[in-house]
Amino acid sequence: MKKKYKINNEIKAKKIYLIDEFNKPIGLLNFKKALYIAKKKNLDLIEISNNLKGSIIVKMINYKKFIYKKKKKYEKNKKKNLSLKKISLKLNIAIHDYKFKINNIFIFLKKGHKVKIILNFKGREKKYINENLIFINKLKKDIKKIFPNTKIFIKNKKNNFEIFCSLNKKISNEKKNKK
To answer: What's 149's DSSP letter?
Structure first.
């Protein structure tokens, strides 16, 4: 949240387009008149947009509430980005390693994280499309065995496949409510 907003007397424009606290447009006004209206309602004028053509959009709201909501929204988006876990697999993986990685996927899904599985194919592995698809189907079946309500999306790239897994929240919430 680095953006600094201009408020009240920091706005250097003679005419502004004003929006009230309920997001209803008031229209094009003289800056001094808009500032008088805002002070009368114990609110602040905050510059939302400044176009090069000279039209400045200003919103009339409480500045502290505005900043508080922006910080909350920023923190919420930041948490969403952290919930993606990545796991990398190869076609020729040992059975124990495969089970270990599958176990990690289950742990992440139980905790509510989204999982991105990256299947890297190198050299001749790229040519054996059938074996790659068999491996991907095996992986999907193993995930669906324990979590049948899992959404799985497969994205094909040049040298690898990306598989995105996440629990279907509607189904998992319904199961919790039945218990």
So the answer is: T
